[in-house]
């Protein structure tokens, strides 16, 4: 009997957040035939290169998100919310709730709770509540309820305070190569002068792979209420 396929919804505050931090695992699942969907609550256009028009850069970012997802055989959704103006509101929770009910993911990946970036922390809170809303059958929306049973928080250099790797997920050289090729579509990953994103994350997946006694790996945290190991004996 063939293994059942899963759907993964990776939700970031900006285009590129999930592609960088969970992209190796997303590529690995893509190669196994699983469905990959990315959702960016903003495009992240305020990182516009000097001398460029911000509206044009936003369009570029949306296209970069689509390009990454298409290379993984998936799809990308980008909300039309200005970068830096993401509201920690009921309205946003309902918007994300509706996407969860539309996509029906087995797995959601998003930001860890702490960050130097307010959009990341806001996204974390929105996603946690939206997942809860999406799973409530008594919470009536246009689409029927759906509960995503697994929730993970990706490792991000901007979200590092109190982050401790809890789950290591390894992936192959083939998945690594696909991830590097796909994430390199994002200008800021290869062209930013403020931080060497691609170099950092390529080294990070190798270090995490070594720690896991594998070649490459990405790490994740889980909700605190899920942090338990069950055994009948030692």
From TrEMBL:
InterPro entries per record: GlcNAc_PI_deacetylase-related (IPR003737), LmbE-like_dom_sf (IPR024078)
Gene3D superfamilies (alphabetical): LmbE-like
Lineage top rank: taxon: Bacteria
Pfam families xrefs: PIG-L
Protein name from the UniProt record: PIG-L family deacetylase
Natural source organism: Paenibacillus profundus
């Amino acid at each position: 009997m063939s293994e059942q396929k899963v759907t993964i919804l990776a939700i970031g505050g900006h285009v590129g957040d999930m592609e960088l931090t969970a992209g190796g695992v997303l590529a690995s699942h893509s190669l196994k035939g699983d469905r990959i969907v990315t959702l960016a609550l903003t495009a992240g256009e305020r990182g516009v290169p000097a001398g460029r028009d911000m509206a044009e850069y936003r369009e570029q970012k949306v296209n970069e998100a689509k390009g990454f997802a298409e290379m993984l055989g998936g799809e990308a959704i980008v909300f039309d919310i200005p970068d830096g103006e993401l509201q920690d509101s009921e309205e946003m929770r309902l918007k994300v709730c509706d996407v969860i009910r539309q996509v029906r993911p087995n797995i959601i990946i998003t930001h860890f709770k702490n960050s130097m970036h307010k959009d990341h922390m806001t996204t974390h809170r929105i996603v946690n509540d939206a997942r809860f809303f999406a799973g409530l059958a008594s919470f009536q929306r246009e689409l029927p309820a759906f509960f995503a049973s697994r929730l993970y928080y990706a490792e991000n250099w901007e979200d590092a305070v109190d982050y401790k790797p809890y789950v290591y997920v390894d992936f192959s050289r083939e998945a690594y190569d696909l991830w590097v090729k796909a994430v390199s579509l994002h200008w800021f990953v290869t062209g930013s002068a403020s931080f060497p994103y691609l170099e950092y994350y390529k080294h990070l997946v190798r270090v995490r792979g070594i720690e896991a006694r594998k070649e490459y790996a990405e790490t994740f945290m889980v909700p605190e209420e899920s942090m338990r190991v069950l055994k009948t004996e030692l």
